[in-house]
Amino acid sequence: MFTLVAMAILYVFGFVFLYGVIRVAVRHAMEDLDARRAEAHRMDRAVTAHERNFIRENEFLANG
């Protein structure tokens, strides 16, 4: 009887632990995604500024 109770407790705690691990993993993944999104946005702005400067310096290439 003790074995059955111990196994039931371990079974339930296993699922609780697994839920916690998955929750932490998803939270970290979302934080990484936000960080990468901000970095991509920053890089996009830098590229746009660089392209604008390039066009100003080389107007003949942009039909301007």
How does the SSE layout of this entry go?
Blueprint: H1 2-57
Keywords: Membrane, Transmembrane, Transmembrane helix
Transmembrane segments: 6-26
- Main structural class: mainly alpha
Helix run count: 1
Rg, please? 27 Å
Shape: rod-shaped
Low-confidence stretches: none
End-to-end span in angstroms?
A: 87 Å
Helix content class: over 70%
Characterize the biggest β-sheet: none
Into which percentage range does the β-strand content fall?
under 5%
The count of β-strands is 0
Transmembrane segments: 6-26
Keywords: Membrane, Transmembrane, Transmembrane helix
Brief synopsis:
88% of the residues lie in helices and 0% in strands. It has one helix spanning 2-57.
Describe the structure.
Helix content is 88%, strand content 0%. It is mainly alpha-helical. It has a domain at 21-64. The protein is rod-shaped.
